[in-house]
Write a structure and sequence with these properties.
Largest sheet: 2 strands, antiparallel
Strand order of the largest sheet: 1-2
Strand content: under 5%
Oligomer: single chain
Number of domains: 1
């Protein structure tokens, strides 16, 4: 019976690692969709190519990826809150720490589009 529990724990760790890797790749793709071009005066970066059709497609792709990341972030945030509450009830400090990490990661992913908007991307 104990072996089944251990294998379930190992399997869950592998699933969590896979989900983390996929989310990281989505974040990398979402952050590199914007096209940067110099204005020529060296004053900063523009997020435009100068061709409206290409800009609209890139904006759509960026919005899609950021939406997917936000959706996954909300799920991770909810799971982190549930894990933290369960660990608090059982007085498990390591579980509370893991739950807090899940809350932080989920919040960052859920609000990544707001962060990028503040950065001007």
């Amino acid at each position: 019976m104990k072996k089944k529990i251990n294998t379930k724990k190992v399997r869950m760790k592998k699933v969590k690692a896979f989900i983390l890797a996929v989310c990281t790749q989505f974040m990398i793709l979402g952050n590199t969709v914007a096209v940067f071009a110099d204005t020529g005066s060296g004053s900063g970066l523009l997020t435009t190519t100068g061709i409206s059709q290409i800009d609209s497609v890139l904006t759509t792709i960026k919005s899609l990826f950021l939406g997917i990341i936000a959706l996954i972030g909300i799920i991770i945030l909810a799971k982190g809150i549930a894990d933290t509450a369960q660990a608090y009830q059982q007085q498990d400090s390591h579980g509370m720490y893991d739950g807090a990490k899940g809350i932080a990661a989920g919040a960052i992913m859920a609000f990544i589009s707001a962060v990028l908007t503040l950065l001007g991307l």
